[in-house]
UniProtKB/TrEMBL annotation:
Residues of the full protein shown: 530 to 816 of 816
Protein name: PAS domain S-box-containing protein/diguanylate cyclase (GGDEF)-like protein
Domain EAL per the UniProt entry, residue ranges: 24-278
Native species: Aestuariispira insulae
């Protein structure tokens, strides 16, 4: 009986593995089609300075509207895009689109705003990533100071000198660098000193319970204090409630992002809504 069970278990796993592999293959095929058929677009979520209420940054978030299946979430296809290398093409497209869109928005409003773009570890391995980014910025006619790149701790774990060089050259050119999902990766924290980061984004897992869980509250306070002492701006992700925002403000968090303040939206929706938000005055006109 045991033997039979064992065999059934094996068969069960095999069937499941095939199914998973099959699904993955289907996803790759669908994704290739999506790129060719222009099904991917970029939405933007507003980030606000907590002290002044000014809109300061727009985070570019990729969106996939499949003709039959509707919206497919990034968490469902970004990992596949990373494994297959498709993220390089997708990432280039997002970066180019984001620079073009933010330039258009600044031009129309005559107000400065930054655009933050998520970058996968795989994109850094493409060779000359810094040159590529600076080339895209120049071709879209914005200055590097309006671009922020969001990187997760996973990239820094690899601790490779090439990555360090790329980050340093981008920072020197004026691009801002931010650590995304801070606190969720395995990090030694020493990279905070080693790499030229400007911004730290506290993962929404900590923000979620900040008003009713003393450990989350303690962690958030500690992260803010640490960031301040290292001269990093702190962004809280996933702010959904007034209480969370009040807590973050009281503890000196600089910037807030979350459904409470604004959801990711298309450029069309954004330009309709952006007039309700106050923004920083532009000192020099955008070219
Ligand atoms: P992320 O960079 O941490 O982006 C923030 C995510 O949190 C977004 O999910 C956003 O919609 C969501 N979010 C914002 N405010 C709230 C809130 O108040 N509550 C909740 N529950 N969620 C909130 P999204 O758009 O589904 O993206 C998921 C992840 O996919 C991103 O996490 C990022 O890691 C990745 N991603 C998205 N676009 C790109 C891209 O263009 N390139 C790369 N490499 N990764 C991307
Ligand atoms: Mg991000
Ligand atoms: Mg994040
Ligand atoms: Mg994330």
């Amino acid at each position: 009986l045991a033997k039979k069970d064992g065999r059934n278990t094996y068969r069960f796993f095999k069937a499941h593995m095939n199914e998973a592999a099959l699904q993955r293959l289907e996803m790759v095929t669908k994704l290739r089609k999506a790129i060719a058929n222009d099904e991917l677009s970029v939405h933007y979520q507003p980030l606000f300075d907590i002290a002044t209420g000014n809109l300061v940054t727009l985070e570019a978030l990729i969106r996939w509207n499949h003709p039959k299946e509707g919206w497919i979430a990034p968490d469902q296809f970004i990992p596949v895009a990373e494994e297959t290398g498709l993220i390089k093409d997708i990432g280039d497209q997002v970066l180019r689109r984001a620079c073009a869109d933010v330039k258009e928005i600044m031009y129309r409003l005559q107000r400065p705003v930054k655009v933050a773009v998520n970058i996968s570890a795989r994109q850094f391995k493409d060779g000359h990533f810094d040159e590529k980014v600076l080339g895209i910025i120049a071709s879209q006619g914005i200055v590097p100071e309006y671009l922020e790149l969001e990187i997760t701790e996973r990239l820094l774990m690899l601790d490779d000198p090439e990555t360090a060089g790329i980050l340093r050259r981008l920072a020197k050119a004026g691009v801002s660098l931010s650590i995304d999902d801070f606190g969720t990766g395995y990090s030694s924290l020493s990279y905070l000193k080693r790499y030229p980061f400007d911004v730290l984004k506290i993962d929404r897992a900590f923000v979620k319970d900040v008003t009713h869980d003393s450990q989350s509250a303690a962690l958030v306070s500690a992260i803010i204090a640490m960031a301040q002492s290292l001269d990093l701006k702190v962004i809280a992700e996933g702010v959904e409630e007034e209480g969370q925002l009040a807590h973050l403000k009281k503890h000196g968090c600089d910037i807030a992002q979350g459904f409470l303040l604004g959801r990711p939206m298309s450029v069309a929706d954004l330009t309709a809504k952006i007039h309700q938000w106050q923004m920083v005055e532009l000192e020099a006109p955008v070219a």
